[in-house]
Amino acid sequence: MTDVALITGCSRGGIGDALAQEFYHKGVRVFASARDLSKMQHLKAMGLDTVQLDVTSEESIQNAVRYIEKESGGKLDYLVNNAGVGYLTPLLDADLALAKNLFDTNFWSVLAMVKAFSPTIIAAKGKIINIGAVTGVMTQPYWGINCSCKAALHMLGDTLRVELAPFDVQVVTVIAGTINTTFFENQAKYLNVPENSLYQSVQSQINYSASAEEWRPWTEPSDFAAGVVANALKKKPKAWYWHGTKTFITWLAVTFLPYGFLDFKWLHMSGLNTLRKKT
């Protein structure tokens, strides 16, 4: 019987899109999901199943559960939690309502999806793949909300891995490096440091943090997806799968370098050292 995968956040051009195509090319029946079906028309044309799904809506999740159970006969071998949004701001300038919304999308929705689809995943002795990031392992100034969210996601995956082991469900946490998507440009569109911000003088540095230029070189989504899917299809995949540009150097840094060195590096790379001189 053909394996079945559900992937969240499959809008065109993103990581989910690439993952959906890669699973499909490997012979897996793919249910690609996104809030806006119009952004997945190319996947539907290729032969993939597309599902409207807002991961922050319990009603939408339950609708997806019923639809996929009906279409797949209650079988789900891979649940790939990829949907996510970003929020770039110094922590002291953070709008807590926006920050909580980000956690709803990037963190709490993952637990909601796992809970909702657990019967079909357990029945299939399947795999849960959560797309984390290097920012959840090593922080970066102005990305504190994202970093905190991804760190929480990593811990969620570690706990699920142990708690679901008795049911023969495997959990993989993907530590993604920098991937060539529109993610960073999308953050710049909404970036606005308040006039009374303590960080007003480093506005240009904050803007640069949202630009694609800072994150080059990067891995193409198709290359990233190929590695993630290859690991997922293994009988015993790596529990933490690091893949993408800057993953190895991040691992080296957090494993061997002292916090003081890393703090010094970030103070100078982010322009925060100039604030210290002015006070």
From TrEMBL:
Q: Which CDD domains does the record match to this protein?
A: 17beta-HSD-like_SDR_c
From the record, give the transmembrane residue ranges. Answer: 240-262
Can you cite a GO biological process for this protein? triglyceride catabolic process
UniProt-listed Gene3D superfamilies: NAD(P)-binding Rossmann-like Domain
| MF (Gene Ontology) | acylglycerone-phosphate reductase (NADP+) activity; triacylglycerol lipase activity
* Presence of the UniProt keyword Membrane in the record: yes
Q: Which domain of life is it from?
A: Eukaryota
Alphabetical GO CC annotations of the entry are:
endoplasmic reticulum; lipid droplet
Per the record's keyword annotation, is Methyltransferase included, yes or no? no
Keyword line: Membrane, Oxidoreductase, Transmembrane, Transmembrane helix
InterPro entries linked to this entry: NAD(P)-bd_dom_sf, SDR_fam
The UniProt entry's sequence similarity note says: Belongs to the short-chain dehydrogenases/reductases (SDR) family.
| PANTHER family, A to Z | NADPH-DEPENDENT 1-ACYLDIHYDROXYACETONE PHOSPHATE REDUCTASE, SHORT-CHAIN DEHYDROGENASE SRDE
Protein name as annotated: NAD(P)-binding protein
